Amino acid sequence: MILGLLIALASALATNVAFLFKHRGAIRAEPIAVRHPLRGAAALFRSKWFAVGWLVAVLAWALHVGALALAPLSIVQAVLSGGLVFLAVLAERFFDLRLGRWQWFGVTITAAGLAVIGVTGSGAARPQRSSLAGLIAVEGAVFAVGAVLLAVSAHRRITRRPEGLLLGLAAGALFGVSDVAIKYLTHAEGALHGLLSPWTATALLAGAIAFYASARSLQVGPGVEVIALTAVAANLAAIIGGILVFDEPIGSGPLAIGARFVAFCLVILGAALMPVQHAEEPEPETSRPMAASVS
Q1: DSSP assignment, residue 29?
Q2: b/e map of 112-144 (b: 16 or more CB within 10 Å)?
Q3: What's residue 192's pLDDT?
Q4: Could you tell me the CA-to-CA distances from 274 to 97, 101, 200, 222, 248 in Å, in that order?
Q5: Model confidence over 188-199: pLDDT tens digits?
Q6: What is the DSSP string of 33-95?
Q7: Which residues are CB-neighbours of 289 under 8 A, at least 6 positions away?
Q8: In the prediction, which pLDDT does 18 show?
Q9: Euclidean distance between CA atoms 219 and 274, whole angstroms
Q10: Which regions of the chain are under pLDDT 50?
Q11: Which end of the chain has the lower number of beta carbons within 10 A, N or C?
């Protein structure tokens, strides 16, 4: 368990470094267009910053998979939620992205809330189990939420800033779908069975859509807010998956359950504070492409 938590901490740091690199590269690349996904991906990878960020993201993903194999899903996600603090510090110190006072407060209480949700659900150590029915229900529901967010973000009346925030939330939800599927695959009987499982395809499909949605969100939305909302959506989706799919306890008693409820409220409040736009914040300079673009 301890090794899994250390790996998750390394994954949290690498994930946020990757996001910041990709943000710097994405805003310099050609806008993502749904009609030309391969051209959009090629344009992204021609950006040195995005390419390096993607490589760091691959490392973060490998660390994440290792952590999921060694520790309960909700605990891993609780550790990963601490990456929001890494995000805020790195963004201001090394990437010239400024956070307002309320955004710092939002980052802090969101990270704390997610951590409490994960830790209070750990309970006593027990063998990990999984429910196929729970997996189908969670994956279907979160996938549907992601699809709705993508559809709303593509509406002509949606301006660039809300588009970026909606796409960030959609990408996070789909990353959560992928995380839950990957965790389920770590329970597969034999490597071959895992690779041939339909949940491998689910993880790949969700990850591919999330890749484009995330890249587009970084192009049109405010960087730190978009990254933070993506992380919040991914963590909440994975924590819900931990409870409903892997039978990770809601809490070990009334106190733990109450703490989880308060923590959930903190997450919602913190996420609501992140998109606050301050008067001094400039809007992104690039123009919004035609309605066919997004994700």
Answers
A1: S
A2: bbbbbbbbbbbeeeeeeebeeebbeebbeebbe
A3: 47
A4: 13, 10, 33, 10, 29
A5: 555 445 566 777
A6: -TT-HHHHHHHHHHSHHHHHHHHHHHHHHHHHHHHHHHS-HHHHHHHHHTHHHHHHHHHHHHS
A7: 31, 33
A8: 92
A9: 17
A10: 124-125, 127, 191-192, 278-295
A11: N
